[in-house]
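Field log, afternoon session.

UNIT: design team B
ACTIVITY: writing a sequence onto a fixed backbone
BACKBONE:
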């Protein structure tokens, strides 16, 4: 049996180390946590996407008693971008979360598997990586493309 080693690169940064646009995008994701509808988990997640044309769009999680109908913040932001700007590539995605006490999480939270697949689909659609900024009060993970979080995927560009 052969062992295959898969490596991912994730940078850790502080907010002031990001570009001005990236800082604004993170702030939009943080603000979006206040709009989330999370009566079951009480875990409020916000996301924001930066499009190639400079537009920034927020998204937030929307829970439902029928849990499969729940939608994550990352997908609401990506799908809003696709609905409003279908021919414009997403360049960056920022994610922030508030824990059950209402505080912003100390450490970054990562997208679920469904969201990771939606990000892969976005990269495939536009044939370009989506930079991912995962916010935590202690640090921000900066990831150059979803394949660092999901290296084995259904599609590739």
């Amino acid at each position: 049996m052969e062992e295959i080693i898969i490596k991912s690169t994730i940078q850790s940064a502080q907010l002031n180390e990001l570009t001005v646009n990236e800082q604004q995008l993170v702030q939009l994701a943080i603000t979006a946590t206040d709009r989330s509808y999370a009566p079951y988990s009480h875990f409020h997640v916000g996301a924001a996407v930066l499009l190639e044309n400079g537009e920034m769009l927020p998204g937030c999680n929307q829970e439902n008693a029928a849990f499969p109908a729940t939608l994550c913040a990352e997908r609401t932001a990506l799908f809003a971008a696709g609905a409003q700007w279908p021919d414009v590539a997403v360049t960056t995605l920022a994610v922030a979360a508030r824990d059950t006490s209402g505080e912003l999480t100390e450490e970054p939270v990562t997208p679920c598997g469904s969201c990771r697949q939606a990000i892969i689909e976005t990269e495939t659609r536009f044939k370009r990586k989506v930079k991912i900024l995962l916010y935590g009060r202690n640090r921000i993970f900066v990831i150059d493309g979803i394949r660092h979080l999901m290296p084995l995927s259904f599609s590739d560009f």
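LOG NOTE: The chain is about 25% helix and 20% strand.
NEXT ACTIVITY: expression trials, pending approval
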